[in-house]
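Task: fold both queries, return tokens.
Query 1:
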Amino acid sequence: QVQLVESGGGLVQPGGSLRLSCAASGDHLKDYSTVWFRQAAGKEREGVSCIVGGDGIAGYDPVGYADSVKGRFTISRDNVNNTVILQMSDLKPEDTANYFCAADPRPFTFQNGCPRHLKFRGQGTQVTVSS
């Protein structure tokens, strides 16, 4: 069982940057595929970035991004702190949402986007992009 806690959200102006953290306890997050989701008011949940767990799957990209964030968001691991990071830059008002992370012990490929159903999830952190 892994517990996830997100942090790093806040209010930022358009064009600004934020660094979100998904910190895990109870197990090694590096062994879990992890997805950053966001959900804006009145909109469907969107998987914006994902990273495969464990050794990944040979021949497949270990990370994935939604088209809406490609080139602006970067997902990475900090295994020392048992954390997955989402670095967000060039933020836009349409990036405003509650961001939460989810993790699953299964490896995934991301050819068709980030997986939607994972075993564990956190509560989220609010990101607001506004001038």
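Query 1 returned. Query 2:
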Amino acid sequence: QVQLVESGGGLVQPGGSLRLSCKASGIIFSIVKMGWYRQAPGKQRELVADISRDGSTTYSDSVKGRFTISRDNAKNTVYLQMNSLKSEDTAVYYCNHYSGTWAWGQGTQVTVSS
């Protein structure tokens, strides 16, 4: 079965940066379109970025120009570089198949606060 382990979250000041990682196992990672999701308190989980197996990417309007998704197929890992962080980016971040249909990992908490 698929296992997803997210890491790299933390507390950061507005304008700061973080790099999230998600290691996947139990799948042929290189052929899968992956996504990063986030869920803020009291809100629905939302897809913020995805990356196809050929490396093409898409972003939600809320993070476009600030976040960069990438992948390393040799390490079965997808990354999310987050720059110019804002308080509204505070959420638990998860990776998953871009459709969000796999079992969810534990996520990693990102808190943007001064």
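Both queries returned. Flag for query 2: The chain has a mean pLDDT of 96.
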